Amino acid sequence: MTIEKRAATETRAEGRKLIGYAAVFDQETRIADFHEVIRRGAFSGSLADGKDKLALVDHDSGKVLARTKSGTLRLHEDERGLRFEIDLPETTLGRDILALASRGDLGGASFAFTVPDGGEAWSGDKRELRSVVLHEISVVQSFPAYGGTTVQARSRQQRTDADRRIALLELEAAQ
């Protein structure tokens, strides 16, 4: 089985935690010579399998930011897509990614996956992903394949009620 990679755009920064979406549902994109869409629930089986998932930089296994096994990477599906939270390490790599995210210089988020038997459906040149095996997510420094995903840096700083309302309005506007 070949491991495939998909990515998306939009990055924002604020604090020490990266949050965002590595994949969004029901958004069609062009991949090589076909169109692809990820359906709701495509990651549910993989997220429930208990296997360790990694958060990397640019799909490079030598650039680990976090992992589910240690609790520094949290993944779940919601109505929008595959949401992640990464607790950035106090390392040169973690500080560099935080600096790029804070400036808005990251290209987005991405994910690497394989498709199990029966996990996809084809109609002409359109591929529908219904079930995938997630291997890792990545912070992408340059050009992603999918639009609509997000990466944001967050801190545990105290927020006022007004700050929380503004953040909620920004999230609603982004959807």
The outline comes out as: globular
How many distinct helices?
3
The percent of residues in helical segments reads 10-25%
| Total of domains | 1
Name the beta content range.
35-45%
* Protein structure class: alpha+beta
CATH architecture term? Alpha-Beta Barrel
**Topology pattern, helix = H, strand = E:** EEEEEHEEEEHEEEEEH
Rg (C-alpha, Å): 16 Å
Organism: Aquamicrobium defluvii
Keywords: Hydrolase, Protease, Viral release from host cell
GO molecular function, one term: peptidase activity
Domain Prohead serine protease: 10-157
Question: What characteristics describe this protein?
Answer:
175 residues, alpha+beta, Serine Protease, Human Cytomegalovirus Protease, Chain A, 5-stranded mixed sheet, 3 helices
In words, what does this structure look like?
It is a single chain. The protein is of the alpha+beta class and 175 residues long. It has one domain: Serine Protease, Human Cytomegalovirus Protease, Chain A (Alpha-Beta Barrel). Helices cover 17% and strands 42% of the residues. The chain is built from three helices and 14 strands. It has helices at 44-47, 92-103, 161-174, and strands spanning 4-8, 11-12, 17-24, 29-31, 34-38, 54-57, 60-67, 73-77, 81-87, 108-114, 120-123, 126-129, 133-140, 151-154. The strands form three sheets. Strands 1-10-13-6-7 form a five-stranded mixed beta sheet. Strands 2-14-3-9-8 form a five-stranded mixed beta sheet, covered by helices on one side. It has a four-stranded mixed beta sheet with strand order 4-5-12-11, with no helix packed on it. The longest helix is centred in the C-terminal third of the chain and has 14 residues, at 161-174. It is globular, with a radius of gyration of 16 Å. Keywords: Hydrolase, Protease, Viral release from host cell. One of its GO terms (biological process) is proteolysis. Residues 10-157 form the Prohead serine protease domain. This is Prohead serine protease domain-containing protein.
